[in-house]
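Sample intake sheet
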Amino acid sequence: MSTRVQAWQRSIDACRIEFPVAPDFFSRLWVQGRLSFDRLPVVSAGVDEFTSRLAVAAVRRRGQLLISLPDDDPRRPAVIFGSALVATALETLLAKTTGVTVVLIGSSVEIRNHLANTRVQSLNLSSVFPQVHLQSDAQHVAVQADIAALGKHLPKVICVLSPNDAIKILERYRPRWIAVECNKERDTRWLQSVAGWALQRHVGLVGWINGDRPSILAIARKHHIPVFQWPLLNNHGLIGERDIAISGEFLINNERTLALSPLLLDGVVTDSIATALAKANIALARCQGQAHSQMADDCLRIAWHYLRTVENLPVPVSFYEEECRAFWGLTSPTDLSQAAQRFGAAIKGSDPLIASLVEQAVSSVDTSIELMRRNSVPTWNGLRTLCIGSSSRKDPKDIVFLTASRRRLFELALVGIEGVTANDLEDVGIRLGDIGQKGAFVRSNEGDQSFTSPVSANRSVVLIGLPTVDQLAKIHQRAGRAPMNVVLYPHQGRLLQSRMQQYAAHAGIRTADQLKAFREVGVNLPTDQAFSLDSEIRVTESSKLTVLDDGDPDGRDPSSPQWTSFFEESEVQALLEAGTDETDDAELLTDDLPPTEDVQSDDIAIERAIEIEISGRRKGLFSPDYSINLVRVVDGKEAILERTVRSVQVGNRLMLVHGQRRQSLYELLLTRVHRHPSLQLHLTLIKTWQEEIASSFSQWRKSSGRSFGDLLVELQALGSGIQSSLALRFWTEGKVLAPFDEQDLPRIAKVLAMKFTGQHHSRIAKAAERLRSLHRGLARRLNSWLRREAAGDQVQDDDDEVVDAELGLTLRDFKDSLEIVTVESYKERTGLFLTSNLNVFRAY
């Protein structure tokens, strides 16, 4: 038995913490099968039971404990929270004391279903423990009255979604303990303040993490919140309707192992390109730590963006330049180069050193992209080798891109340049995927309702490009046991090693942290020098992927010199600190749905901006075309209108959505419901049809030489009422959910030979209408709320108005994330402004 197996077995044994108030509590609740989720009995001696024991112990001791779960099964949070609540109820009942208050904080409406889906024998916990779904500060008196009228001994649950001021709510209700559900980086906005308050007030805090782990774990560790981490586990009986009994051997045998093997692009011209890109990395890294102005910071952001864009090119340069504008978040390399040069020229007087280093970096990237134009893009050539030159059904591969946009661009280029479709590749054992897809790397259009297919044990996985730390987290959550290859330029091999070390430090299991978590629940686990629970995160030996290009059509001469790294250790560290690509995943609004009905400027920089100051000592710079929610009187009634910033005036009222950079009601909706099971299929349908139309139109245009205007004529001939080719462009760019005329879906499917849309057009239309109806329902309720506010009528029951009955959404589920503010100052500014830094209010 290995030392890690032994260490985990001892940890599992240490999790068997009894409840002193009732020593047979867990036996009766779990072993005897009295606890169930979705009417299925929970399994004893599994992850769920052991996690529940830790949570109950932390609550009883008024300690703090965050638990990183092994997967995203919705059962786990429900039964953990339910067990802790039942234990609290039992404690107060036996002591005959008054029932306590428990505050449950999360960001998704799904947390409201935890008690509804959990039962103790025939009792639904939502019927036993009253819940108050709090979202507005205006309900203090009425809600307190409700609590006072509830049962004497049972705990009362206060549910809060994405609070803007969590401390205010905690001070009001003074809970005995707090439960938190952390899924997204934005949850850290309230997590640190909640943990600080709980520690100061000696209030128990227990939470679970099953989403964006690195950022949440980093915040938890920074603020000394004890964290217990389960290994990330694969699908062998763990992600499904029921849990499974575990042992140390089971955990290690089913652990998702993050082992990456660099597959370095190899060729004479590739070496020249890598050398130029490495020089650009070094020049920009040397800017780290230099004092500089805000404009110099903007200049550096653009230069890094330019470098990362070129390093990540998956297709020929000319193809990328032509097609990238159809993808949210992608920018032409030519535009980025020109923007970096503009900002560099603008800061020569104020920041001469930064300007000089940026000039060197941009020149090096320009050199590399010119080599790519004259020869070819090494990554494109390497992908062609993997997909076409060396593919075989005997050696099946999953080619996995770091973003959906790069995958889609590669698919378009394969069709347009090579005449090869994704279906053709599947015939020879090659599947294309990306790390953003739910549940698996690879999406399949086959079948009726199943749109993802897992990576099987006999398929090798090849990742394309250097992952960021956050992307490593997504890869880890889908990894198997075997190492995965990563296609990189030669200069990126050392950087991969360092990023893996950084990821391990941020999100990996650390033995010292596990022992600290055990001490928090009263367990001192004896250890020795061999005791280790650390995650298995490693980079294995690299190999080479030969690239044939115009510079060396017959391959590298064996006598030619090999590429060698000239990075110094200090430069690698500077690259880690400065070179994170913040724009890498910007093309999607969420993991589930591209941006819709909210089209903003694609300009990298603008020369005119508007400075707005609002109540609460906050101000920000905005693009004149940026959309904002304006509160105005329409036909004598208060209403929320989406208007551009240029239409704002002093004295106007605005509705702000906290925790969101883009002030979109669609995004607010998605943050609440995107994980809801009833909507996941809708979101998948919309995303899949949007990807298919982009790919199919590009193929149709290249093969026939026709345009949007020609497509409009063909659709009109089939009976479509569309009058503008601009509407068709919006369809292909994913800027609308779906055509408003349902019959336009089969029409476009017929013209562009879209198999998926043709088969599922009715379901796509229904999915789009479902999301639109959610948006309309929210808008109506918000307008009603504004009218009541204006009239001074703050009736609490009105806030229980249903936005959507199926999802159980009420107005309360949104209000705490909203704020009405007044515009106090409005000024036009001239200069050079980076658009990615605009459109946000900051305190001053």
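Comment: Confidence is low (pLDDT under 50) at residues 133-150, 236-241, 444-455, 579-601. The radius of gyration is 28 Å.
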